[in-house]
Amino acid sequence: MSAAGDLALAARLRGAGLRATRPRLLAYMALAELGGHRSVDELVVALRGRGQALPRADVYEVLESLRLAGLIMGTDAGPGGPLYEVAANAHHHFVCRACAEVMDVPGGSAPPLEAGAEVGVADEAQVIFRGLCHRCAQG
Prior knowledge:
Blueprint: H1 3-15, H2 22-34, H3 40-49, H4 56-68, E1 73-75, E2 83-85, E3 91-96, E4 102-106, E5 128-131, H5 134-138
Parallel strand pairs: 3-5
Antiparallel strand pairs: 1-2, 3-4
């Protein structure tokens, strides 16, 4: 990312109520550059490969702070930990049972479904579709 991009990201973090710390900047930039849906472990490896190693626990805490501030999205796509992505619009996900690819499904809002007054007031809902992607279905 360029110096101007770094400054813009720092301003975005501050605008979301977060300090623009080195770990937050590094994790956000790595997530944005990798694209897609990434695990904490994938980001740890990517950062280490760039000579910017951060402890796994720090990466997890950074990603959660970015998610809670609304700067990234997190999803639970199945076995393993959550996956994170830089996304501009709310959406759902499709997980292929054969190849485990996670794909965006347009649509979604907070919340698209009602949880029911007896359990509480929901501020987020995630829909995960599971099945075979086109490639695996034809395979």
